[in-house]
Amino acid sequence: MPSLIVIFGLLGNITTGLVYLSPAKTFWRIVKNRSTEDFECIPYICKLLNAYWWVYYGIIKPNSVLVATVNGFGAVLEISYVLLFLLFAPPQAKARTAILCGILDVAFPAAAILVMQLFLQRDARIDAAGLMCVFFSMMSYGSPLSAMVSPVA
């Protein structure tokens, strides 16, 4: 009989998977209209960064395969969302998205993980990755607020 930890872990994965799927309707609209309209890229870039860190944490922390798998699924979805955004965004938004994605979703995680792998012991690496996960989770769930900024009249 599965333990309560596994049962609640699977329920958490289902919930997290649904959170990652929640923008699908928006992206269906983007594809259908062939335009990103006034949508912002920042929430998707932040969610991708968050997913990367949770995958890394799930890989380095023992017995955390559920964390790694659901966030791996999320990372694939977020990569798809960012690519669709890049495909249908106007030139200025496309350039901004590509730059932000290159810095936040490629260069920064690669450099940070490399430094952690080279200079931190196993337990310190797990702790540091966990702190990064908490920080980027807060950032990713707060990032939709960036769309609420109104232009100065």
TrEMBL record:
| InterPro entries for this protein | SWEET (IPR047664), SWEET_rpt (IPR004316)
The Gene Ontology terms for molecular function here are: sugar transmembrane transporter activity
- Gene Ontology CC terms: endomembrane system; membrane
Localization of this protein:
Endomembrane system
Source organism, top-level taxon: Eukaryota
Which Pfam families does the record associate with it? MtN3_slv
Give the UniProt keywords, A-Z.
Answer: Membrane, Repeat, Sugar transport, Transmembrane, Transmembrane helix, Transport
Membrane topology qualifier: Multi-pass membrane protein
List where the protein spans the membrane: 41-59, 66-89, 95-116, 128-149
The keyword Protein transport belongs to this UniProt entry's keyword annotation? no
The protein's matches in Gene3D superfamilies, at most eight in alphabetical order, are given as: 1.20.1280.290
| Protein family per UniProt | Belongs to the SWEET sugar transporter family.
Name listed for the protein in its UniProt record:
Bidirectional sugar transporter SWEET
Organism this protein belongs to: Turnera subulata
